[in-house]
Specification:
Elements: H1 2-27, E1 30-36, H2 41-54, E2 58-65, H3 67-76, E3 81-84, E4 99-113, E5 121-122, H4 124-132, E6 149-153, H5 158-168, E7 177-179, H6 182-191, E8 195-200, E9 209-210, E10 212-213, H7 220-224, E11 231-239, H8 244-253, H9 256-265, E12 269-270, E13 276-278, E14 284-286
Length: 292
């Protein structure tokens, strides 16, 4: 009986040692959380995976939710990084003076349609008239007699705000179905005859047809030169100057390897290759070669 108790106590002791050693290992792992823009999410996720490969005990937890969520969460100090398609100054309710902007890439926003749509190119004015509800049939822009079905992004989306700034101006969006998810937008356009919406370039694939604007193709080179006018930056915001693992991760994203491999692979534009810059008022000016 005594021998049985000793064996049992020894087993409990080994279990305790194992649990304690496991806790110690988990305590050695560091995690930061980046939340916000769905347009930025693929880039931050892939960069996070590369960062963890180089730093096995450091993990980057990446979540979507949209630009509005990213900016509000970082302002509250609830996360380490807030991902945004907009300057913080462009979002109401955000005190930009307390946030630090880290621009990691540029990204194009591209109008996409169902493959049944025969139109290949629109002007900015025609695109604005479609999304404001003035043009309701594809025959009005040279296509077949086919009603236009609008799919918009939800209010609070940075992709929507960028599209509104570069395309809509002061015109208001017509009432339409709204979606939070870029993947869902792509699926609905693919399955809906006559549908049109817009996506950040990393979400483009063969299930939808991209449109030219003024016969200009949505390419990396055309975004760099500002021939493609619908683009924004991907901002990673911190609440104050970053420190520790957050700073290490932000520095990692800006390395030549990540900018040349990950950024380009996902069809973003490396910051140092942009020939033009855009401020929070939407003003576009050439990039100073001295500043590169």
């Amino acid at each position: 009986m005594l021998k049985t108790r000793i064996v049992a106590l020894f087993g409990l002791l080994l279990t305790a040692v194992f649990v304690l050693s496991g806790c110690k290992g988990s305590q050695g792992q560091q995690t930061i959380t980046a939340v916000g823009s769905s347009a930025a999410q693929p880039l931050v996720e892939l960069a996070g995976e590369g960062f963890t490969k180089n730093n096995p005990n450091q993990y980057v937890n990446v979540q979507g939710g949209g630009t509005g969520t990213g900016l509000s969460q970082i302002q509250q100090g609830a996360v380490d990084i807030g991902n945004s398609d907009l300057y913080a100054e462009q979002k109401s309710g955000i005190d930009a003076s307390k946030l630090v902007d880290h621009r990691i890439a540029a990204v194009g926003m591209v109008p996409v349609v169902n493959h049944d749509v025969s139109v290949d190119s629109l002007t900015i004015k025609q695109l604005r008239q479609i999304f404001s509800g003035e043009i309701t049939n594809w025959k009005q822009v040279g296509g077949a007699d086919l009603p236009i079905t609008l799919i918009n992004r939800a209010d609070g989306s940075g992709t929507r705000a960028s599209f509104q700034a570069d395309v809509m101006g002061k015109a208001q969006f017509a009432r339409a179905q709204e979606q939070d998810s870029s993947g869902m937008v792509r699926q609905i356009v693919d399955n809906t005859q006559g549908a049109i919406s817009y996506l950040a370039m990393p979400y483009l694939n063969d299930t939808v047809k991209t449109l030219k604007i003024d016969n200009v193709d949505p390419t990396i080179k055309n975004i760099e030169s500002n021939r493609w006018k619908i683009w924004s930056y991907e901002h990673l915001y911190t609440n104050g100057q970053p420190t520790g693992m957050t700073k290490e991760f932000l520095d990692y994203i800006m390395t030549a390897k990540v900018q040349n491999d990950v950024v380009k692979k996902l069809r973003y534009v490396p910051i140092n290759e942009m020939q033009f810059q855009k401020d929070d008022k939407g003003n576009v000016t050439p990039v100073s070669q001295e500043g590169k």
